[in-house]
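ok trying this again, last paste got cut off
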Amino acid sequence: MLQTNDHHHRALLQSIARRAMFERGLLPDFSPAALAELEKMQSPAVATNIQSIRDQREFLWASIDNDDSLDLDQLTVAEALPGDTIKVLVAVADVDSLVKDGSAIDEHARHNTTSVYTAAEIFPMLPEKLSTELTSLNLNEDRLAIVIEMVIGADGALLTSDIYQAQVRNHAKLAYNSVAAWLEGDGIEPESIAAAKALDLNLHTQDNVAQRMRKFRHINGALSLETIEARPIFDGDQIRDLEVEKKNRAKDIIEDFMIAANGVTARYLSSRNLPSIRRVVRTPQRWERIVELAKQHRSSLPDVPDSKALDEFLVKEKAADPLRFPDLSLAVIKLLGSGEYISEISGRTIPGHFGLAVKDYTHSTAPNRRYPDLVTQRLLKAAIQSQVSPYTYDELGILAQHFTTQEDAANKVERQVGKSAAALLLESQIGQQYDAIVTGASGKGTWARLLNLPVEGKVVQGFEGMDVGDRVRVQLISVNVMHGFIDFRKVGKARN
């Protein structure tokens, strides 16, 4: 698909990524002060107050993450209990023990608020010596963690929960794709599962309870959305292709456990009268267009936003046309609007998370890669130890706004570099025609994503009257690799 040219794609994308970080006000490098602090850190945090820290190193903990993930934020394990109930435990890396509020490393993390994953380079929120070694829940290493314990009923509802500090040990480092293939019966048992006694049974229990929890959420109106995320595939330093990341059963286990754990965390802080930072997606911005899209698919939705009705429509469409479903999902996600962080104190009603159909939702399970989770961890530790809140409600309000802004900036950097990668891939395809779906339509411009390649670009000619969800045929007229611009003109209706 590509002509090989003299310069290396990866190096070019790296320079684009660094420039994009600066332009969006994000720091690509750690300060000398942060690196000096890092020098002094030689070992993982150890348990000082042994009485209050449980020893759970013998539990069958395992991590499930991307094949190439080195920053392991969480471990999971499950235990079948009498009466068809199942206990789920989620251990979250205790990052706060080494990263202290106000330190130079903390300042950097707070500024960027998230790790930025671009096609060319990862800009980690914490130095890798921390995020992939000292605070990562690495294989066969004793680590401190915050454990969220949940008992789930036969119907998938949460019955009881608790949060405490513990020492844990990861007994198997697993990857989503191989675990999913094995769970779905399409693949052989990964060696790392076979090596840990009874881990296969434990993972089946986790899979079983995750499916119950998911079903319960959907009965309560969570949305069955599925998008396409593209990862550039390099051949040496050249981009060869864009690969689509797909959902699978192993990812579902982690997603369902994390959503539940985040809910428990929010309620735990609330019940102890500590303020918290919540993640919300307010009621949809363009519900009337979602209703119109449903009409085009011969379905009717109520005039007022209704997540349950929307989910029934999505489930029906997924069954009818699984191939095109991600495109419909993407259109709906764009119309729902993006999430934001807000501060919360018990007793005040706040908007819930429309897409997940949960009212209490905070980010708490990825403190190595998201700063809001580290803030939540500090609040949790104060709550567990019956101490006063390390942050005031007003401080959290200011932080929440900052997190929303910076997360948006990070997303833009990732998207821009992704677009530059796509532009590199399409450089040699000028003049080609493609079927596409409209993903954005506003005063700022009209955008479309190709159906057979996960690439989005701007429709600069013939866009009049197009709206989100429409299918069109476009011709590629130009690309600009440095800016990640991909320009199309509409040449007609999509062929299929």
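PB: full thing came through this time. The chain has two domains: 43-230+246-281+352-406, 287-339+430-493.
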